[in-house]
Amino acid sequence: MVDQAFRAAADERPSVPASEKDANMNDILAVRTSESPQRAASPGEANETLLSVRDATIQFPAPKGRKGAVVTAVKNVSIDIRRAEKFVILGPSGCGKSTLLTAMGGFIPLSGGAIELEGRPVRKPSMQTVMVFQDFFQLLPWKTVRANVEFALRQRWPRMPRGERRERAEHFVDLVGLSPQLNQYPHTLSGGQKQRCAIARAFSVSPEVLLMDEPFGALDAINRERMQGELNRIWEEGRPTIVFVTHDVTEAVHLGHRIMVMTEGPGQIRRLLDNPHVGMLPYDTQGQESVAELREMLIPAG
Ligand SMILES: Nc1ncnc2c1ncn2[C@@H]1O[C@H](COP(=O)(O)OP(=O)(O)OP(=O)(O)O)[C@@H](O)[C@H]1O
């Protein structure tokens, strides 16, 4: 019998039929879910929906071609993101991951369907949602690490007393291990340190939802692995809801309580999986097997 967590994932209908390969993946994750004694319970198991995507379709004008022609980036995606979960969107390059994430933040409009945050339509960016990007240039170059975080805090809570703002900024800088660089400017930081600062800034404003678009994509392998572990650790503080986009299978399995696998473009849901291996790689051999299976699932047919 599959366990509760797996049934919850199966409730979300993928928008494309599962292949035989996918069915095997189900078996693997379902069995592991019930067998794994150390399994970290998904905090989203309480099933409280925070961000709801209903039948979302996103189209862009085709770059060239006849007038009115469109590119469909995302097609009929429906998904409920639960409060306090780390939800990973995984898929091949160009399948619409970033587009879907950007729409969740209200940065681009839907062509069809709806996105709601706590039951209210998401139509434009709001303070409830913060995005962290892959590139290293999201910090204000003329401000120090501390001042970058303080700046965000001032935007979020304009009336917060100066001392409290400073203290809060230092707390989050410390949380990401950047205290020694507190007074440094972005151009003096490594790529990993810049991402740490961006993450400190994002966490410091206590967003309802943190949207992370391949934030470690530009890091070397060692720093990337380190940052994944850090993210799991930092998430424990406050447990924000995180939607994390990646095309890296190991990263997905290490970070996501649930993993949504997308098809090649136009992006649809291929599978939605509960992941019992979150935070356990690289020492969890079953997790490594799941990584291999997922990787195979992403290899294009033919
Ligand atoms: N502003 C735009 N105008 C036209 N087409 C766009 C636009 N943004 C994205 N697209 C197209 O939508 C599709 C999905 O792009 P998207 O960036 O969401 O994919 P992705 O899965 O995030 O890819 P990657 O992993 O390479 O970042 C692609 O075909 C892309 O060319």
UniProtKB/TrEMBL annotation:
CDD domains: ABC_NrtD_SsuB_transporters (cd03293). Transmembrane segments: none annotated. Residues 53-289 form the ABC transporter domain. The keyword Transport applies. Residues 9-24 have a biased composition (Basic and acidic residues). It comes from the Bacteria. Residues 1-25 are annotated as: Disordered. SMART domains: AAA. InterPro entries: AAA+_ATPase (IPR003593), ABC_transporter-like_ATP-bd (IPR003439), ABC_transporter_ATP-bind (IPR050166), P-loop_NTPase (IPR027417). Keywords: ATP-binding, Nucleotide-binding, Transport. GO terms for molecular function: ATP binding; ATP hydrolysis activity. PANTHER family: ABC TRANSPORTER ATP-BINDING PROTEIN, TAURINE IMPORT ATP-BINDING PROTEIN-RELATED. Belongs to the ABC transporter superfamily. This is ABC transporter ATP-binding protein. The lineage of its organism: Bacteria, Pseudomonadati, Pseudomonadota, Alphaproteobacteria, Rhodospirillales.
